[in-house]
Amino acid sequence: MRVVIIVIDSFGIGALPDAENYGDSNSNTALHICKTVKGEKWPVLKKMGLGNASLILGNKLPGCNAVKSPLASFGVMKEKSPGKDTTTGHWELAGLELDSAFTTFPPKFPSFPKKLLADFTKETGKEIIGNKAASGTVIIEELGKEHMETGKLIVYTSGDSVFQVAAHEDIVPLEKLYDICAKARKLCDQYQVGRVIARPFIGKPGNFTRTKGRHDYSINYKGETIFDFLHKENINTVGVGKIGDIFLERGINDSYNDKGNKACIKRTEELLSKPAEGDEFIFVNYVDTDMLYGHRRDPQGYCDEVEKIDKHLGKLIEVLREDELLIITADHGCDPTFKGTDHTREYVPLLCYQKKSEVVNLGIRDQFSDVAASVADFFGIPGYPRGISFL
Q1: How far apart are CA 333 and CA 322, in angstroms?
Q2: Mean pLDDT across 64-77
Q3: Would strands 195-204 and 215-218 be described as parallel, antiparallel, or unpaired?
Q4: What is the DSSP letter of 337?
Q5: For the chain, how far is it from start to end, CA to CA, in angstroms?
Q6: How many domains does the chain contain in total?
Q7: Final residue of a domain: which of 202, 218, 234?
């Protein structure tokens, strides 16, 4: 038996009731992409019931409308935990709910506490520039030349709980940057910062490019995720993409830290090309929708990236066996038509596919943890403490 969870990063499907508290009223990643990019789109997701899921919230998706007989059970999920970031969303999908949000910082200079930056300079021996919220591509164009001339690190944040460190690979070798970010991670723990992110780049002023050497350092967590429960039952656990970083490699047998959707899609197809040797759980993140197109407010690019994922899902449906369950969802929104460059507080879609299984309307789920509860249910693990199984 095998369960595969695919997270289409930031593929939200409508503003949550409390979105106004986050400045995200009327955001809707899927709907606004469909309205902006004309024509038919995402045929596999359409057949699976993405449009049906959106209709639960009263929204028709132009070009990806509801179908009469969807292939998958469909629904939408609320995020119970406060926040709208990668770590919070993935943790809740894995059954770890937060009572309080991670710390976010003011968007304008100076963003970070003076003591944090003083301690950072003391620990790393590096001065900083930046110290504000910014798009990663924009800030390296703005400060990359100064960084190369002075050796000062570009440190910045966003609407998420992040402390990001950008450096040119010719100025700060990759392993040195990772060491700097590991030190920053320890310093950021007392401030309850969700992630420290290494952001290496290459090129010359006016033509900088971020590389695939990005590395996320998540804050440590208390409690157990679905990985821990499955691991104790000797069920093989696999992470693809940034899953290992998000969960600190805890409870994961095989971690494939592939960078970018193309590599992660290839890995997923390889893993599913043959039956599992025993019971197996695979958790996959497809990051490019968020990183390359959501934050950069590019609805056409976002739509095209979902199209690539859609074709990939078509292949998976063909090869999935009767004892394999596929769950497709997201971790938050990042509406590419919305103001700013940050994530948006949204419902996420829920598509649950298994050959020869009954297809039902799963409705509005009250927490992402229903995914973890359903995984536990699928493998027959009794007494899972959080969420409600939808199987």
Answers
A1: 32
A2: 97
A3: antiparallel
A4: T
A5: 15
A6: 2
A7: 218
- Peptide bond before 110: cis, by omega within 30 degrees of 0? yes
For 300, the enclosing helix (H) or strand (E) is: helix 299-319
pTM of the predicted protein model: 0.90
What's the pLDDT tens digit per position in 202-218?
999 999 999 989 999 99
- Residue that has been written with the tokens 């929204």 in this structure: 59
* 26 and 92 part of one domain: yes
| CA 286 remoteness from chain centre | 7
**According to the model, what pLDDT value does residue 16 have?**
98
Give the Cα separation of 351 and 2 in Å (integer).
Answer: 16
We report the CATH number of the domain holding residue 45 as: 3.40.720.10
Alpha-helix runs per DSSP H in 96-242: 114-124, 136-150, 174-189, 226-232
Beta-strand pair 348-353/73-77: antiparallel
Give the number of other Cβ atoms within 10 Å of residue 311's Cβ: 12
Among residues of the chain, what percentage have pLDDT more than 90?
A: 94
**Of residues 137 and 44, which shows the higher confidence score?**
44
- Other Cβ atoms within 10 Å of 35 Cβ, number: 16
Helix 174-189 vs helix 114-124: angle between axes, to the nearest 10 degrees?
140
Are 101 and 374 in contact by the 8 Å Cβ rule? The answer is no
Cβ–Cβ < 8 Å for 29, 8: no
Residue type, 343: H
pLDDT digits (tens, 9 = 90+) for 81-107: 999 999 999 999 999 999 888 999 999
Buried b or exposed e, range 272-309, using 16+ CB within 10 angstroms? beeebeebbbbbbbbbbbbbbbbbbbbbebbbebbbeb
Domain that holds residue 240: 2-98+221-378
CATH number at residue 141: 3.30.70.1250
387-389-390 Cα angle (round to 5)? 125
Same domain, 234 and 92: yes
